[in-house]
Amino acid sequence: MKGNIIILSAPSGTGKTTILKRVMPELGPISFSISHTTRGPRAGEKNGSDYHFVSKDEFLRLKDQGDFLEWAEVHGNYYGTSVHSVLALQETGQDVVLDIDIQGARQVRQKLKQPYSIFIIPPSWEEQAKRLRGRGTDDDATIALRLSNAKKELGDVDFYDFVVVNDSIEEASEMFRAIILSLRAKGRRLANGQEIALL
After folding, report:
1. Cα–Cα distance for residue pair 32/119, rounded to 1 Å
2. Which among 69, 56, 155, 75 is positioned nearest to 104, based on CA atoms?
């Protein structure tokens, strides 16, 4: 039985990475798709673990070869998801989480038959700005750009299957966990495409 492919999107600084790190170790057969990116690593990030950090030339070479399930340019940097690694993980029965933005989500929906999707939003824009400043990684101009882009991203929220408000990291994490478990309970597809009936 194949695993589920789950798109996870959120405005920058909303807390999706924290939620993933809190919940995924508890969920058993689930993997985090590691994206390729041309941006430099932040403090504590490791190549091959957080991202595959590559040059712009290498990224464009992979894109032209058709190696990406989705790709996008965000805040001046490129991000992409390897189609081969995602499908290989799915074939082993693992759920695969794609941490991608709305541009990438649109591409995945066009290429895959049945991805599920979750959108995480902040409780307010004031709180979102506070969180971005608290990270200490961006200047005021970058924070303003991220907030502006975040408001535009909310225009796609209706295309997502689930919406989680990250007012409390504990509650948001539990909601994310419940969604993954509910998708598993909904029924997995057999090799012939039939649904398993849950009795």
Report:
1. 16
2. 69
What domains does the chain contain, in order, with CATH numbers?
A: 5-186 (3.40.50.300)
Q: Token pair of 64, please?
A: 């032209």
Sign of CA dihedral 122, 128, 131, 132: positive
Cβ atoms within 10 Å, residue 183 = 18
Say if pTM beats, i.e. exceeds, 0.85: no
Question: Nearest 5 degrees, angle CA 182-CA 185-CA 190?
Answer: 130
3-state secondary structure 111-146: HCCCCEEEEEECCCHHHHHHHHHHHCCCCHHHHHHH
Give one DSSP letter per residue of 59-90, joined into a string: HHHHHHTT-EEEEEEETTEEEEEEHHHHHHHH
pLDDT in tens, 60-113: 999 999 999 999 887 789 999 999 889 988 999 999 999 888 888 999 999 888
DSSP 3-state of 164: strand
